[in-house]
Known about the structure:
Layout: H1 2-15, H2 34-39, E1 72-78, H3 83-92, H4 98-111, E2 121-124, H5 129-135, H6 139-151, E3 154-155, E4 159-161, H7 173-180, E5 184-186, E6 195-203, H8 207-218, E7 223-231
Bound molecules: zinc ion (2 copies).
The site of one zinc ion (ZN) has 8 residues, from helix 2.
Amino acid sequence: MNHLVHIVKSCIDFILPHTCILCNKETESGLICDTCLDALPQVRSPFCHRCGRPLKRRKTCRFCKNGTYLDQGRAWAPFIPPVDALTHFYKYRKMTLLSQLIGRGMANVIVSDFFLKQSDVIVPVPLFWWKRLKRGYNQAKLLADVVGDECGIEVKHMLRRVKNTKTQTQLDEESRKKNVSNAFEVTDGMIKDKTVLLIDDVLTTGATVNECAYVLKNAGAKKVYSCVAAIAPG
Ligand SMILES: [Zn+2]
Ligand SMILES: [Zn+2]
């Protein structure tokens, strides 16, 4: 019996660790202690008015300057320490509980944005089926579900990834564009004149959301916005 209690307790400890995943100090508030939570960097203006990337002064960032199908984007946090570690945990260590914390943060960003909060439908950036199977979940879908609940906007899986694209971490801007070119297709015909809010975990050059915005607009979407968990500063 004691053995069983121990196993159950270990399982609970695994699901809700009592140490902060960032500083390893004991915490009662779940995954991240209040000190680390308060210290997380935020995206502050000025930022690129297309993708939402924080910049030194308000303008269009160097990636969006060459043309983008995205009408407007926002992000929860800049992709700098310790947010990069957080999204790494999230992606590769199955810390799906983090989706609650990050998703709520993204929802706060959305409801305080005049444009994004008016979106008709939320669409997560899909993974190729094989990658989803290997990982067990799509991190963008988990975030989209939380954001949809919090903002009261319907989540629809209107996109399918039809190409098993390479991991983009090591690719430059041009290679990223080529990598995601023709990688997506629209699966739902009910998109005409809709305002779509794309959800993804990390935005670096913006090649992925731009390609998604392109296919959505080709299929009749009126506007395409994006909200990501973390964005690379300009
Ligand atoms: Zn901490
Ligand atoms: Zn931009």
